[in-house]
Amino acid sequence: MKRYILLIVGLTMLLAPVVVSGCATPVPELGSAERPVQLMFVPSVDVAVIESSGEKMTDWITEQTGIHFDVSVPTSYAATIEAMCAAEGDTIGFIPGLGYVLANDRCEVEVALATIRYGRTAYWTQFTVRRDSGITSLADLEGKKWAVPSVTSTSGYLWPSVLLSLNGITPGETVEAGGHPQSVLAVMDGTADFGTSYFSPPGDVPADWSEEDPLEPGGDFTIEQQDDGSYKVWQGGLRVRDARVAAMATNPDVMDEVGLLVLSERIPNDTVSFVSDFPSDMKDTIVQTLIEYAATDEGQEVLADEDFYDITGFGRVDDDYYDPVRNAINILGWTDEDILE
């Protein structure tokens, strides 16, 4: 009898792993609360603002589609690219053109949308200097200390590097400030002699400003502080929308102290990009819902905030829309390693 009992016990022990493995917990469905879609932003402006605004946006999308999201802001532009390339079919990134091109080259990240700002699908680099610096031309930047948001920023580093190179100008030390407003502030407090950051033209529609117009409308500034501590600024009757406005939350005197020296050529707007193995049906749903969200009053309140990304819409684009970014990289002879090291 004992022999039979031992045999039964032995068989039970042998079969136990089979039974356990057969009852393994299934992987939650992508987009569920248990396995949310990962939505990443680059730290180009205040991280707390990005996270808050991103969560408001994704809450709306969740209400419309049932798709859940987890919003995050990696510590740098490079870290965002690395995180997307390490992701397994579940990640979206709001990344600039340079970041997209690098991620596309490294791990076939795919662009779906370009941002639109007040009717424009492009923006510019602005070179900022203290108004009392005595710097009046690009030539004056030779050997000067340069503040950039990040060396993986399209407008903050790639485009101005091309402009400086084509004009035979070699700046001095380059300092990574950590964001566009921080680049402006580094100029204001004397950490750097000049800085580069994004320039969105003044006004509300493309007809308000052209590349032949002065960089600043002229006249006194009209400044309104908002309840959340941010600022709205007008000059010459036009709303000012460049990176200096975002910097005013830290130092309200920025507009009086920091001026614009010159602009770059136009740059393709930043992207909404997906990892290559993201489910196509869910991708289509999210893309369409983002377009619809931008068309709502609620969406404009969040997206068009200058302290966030000042987005007024989204447009569908293909990979070749970012060929000008690739051309800029080729002009400089850069490799991925040069940029991301």
Fold and architecture overview:
This protein is of the alpha/beta class. It has two domains: about 35-120 and about 270-340, Periplasmic binding protein-like II (D-Maltodextrin-Binding Protein, domain 2, 3-Layer(aba) Sandwich), CATH 3.40.190.10; about 125-270, 3-Layer(aba) Sandwich (D-Maltodextrin-Binding Protein, domain 2). It is about 40% helix and about 20% strand. It has twelve helices and 15 strands. It has helices at about 1-20, 45-65, 75-85, 95-105, 155-165, 180-190, 245, 255, 280-295, 295-305, 325-330, 335-340, and strands spanning about 35-40, 70, 90-95, 110-115, 120-130, 145-150, 175, 195-200, 220-225, 230-235, 240, 260-265, 265-270, 270-275, 315. Strands 2-1-3-14-4-15 form a six-stranded mixed beta sheet, sandwiched between helices. Strands 5, 6, 7, 8, 12 and 13 form a six-stranded mixed beta sheet that branches. A three-stranded antiparallel beta sheet has the order 9-10-11, with no helix packed on it. Helix 2 crosses helix 9 (about 280-295) and helix 5 packs across helix 11 (about 325-330). The longest helix has 21 residues, at about 1-20. The model is unreliable at about 1-20 (pLDDT under 50).
